[in-house]
Amino acid sequence: MSGSASASSSRTASPVRAAPREARPPPPVDTTRLLDDSFGLSEPFCQVLSQVFHKYASMTSLPPAPLTEGVSLPDPEEPEQETLKGQPTLGRAQLNAFAKDTNGQVMDDETYKEIAEFLTCTTGVDGAPALTFKGFVQLYQLQTENDINETWNDLTQWGYDRNLQLVGNSAPASATSTEIPAATNGTTPTLGEEA
Q1: Disordered: where is this region (predicted)?
Q2: Which CATH architecture has domain 41-62+72-169?
């Protein structure tokens, strides 16, 4: 995606909270790696993301979220949109629940607009943009590359330890599949790829 680097520097609220690279200590040696040797997301991490994504995608009885003015809608003419139909997604209400559980507050409009503009979305049941699993992976690819400690904080908030194992009763509800959906085509998408 072109222009994303300049857009990120002018953002006030971002789905990915970046820290200066020099401020990040290396991850402890005894942890499961989040990035593989080619800097894509590791298979164990993608499995965790799949479980978390499907937990929130299954929350279909949430009250509708208010409409967001000025949000970009996915182009229905894009070939990928046809393949995304019928796949689980995170609409605004599910994204709000995810953000509240992960960061303690619902998602603001600017962050939602950025997700709709820069990550792979499709049109949700309410006609508004809905984040696909591919877009969710893109979100965590960006965050992990920019601030791996923030990703570890999210994993801890979701109940995972440094070996990506659930601790206690924190199991992602209704997450039964550990397979990575076909939306990623077996690869980790990057922000530079066309969505």
Answers
A1: 1-35, 67-90, 171-195
A2: Orthogonal Bundle (1.10)
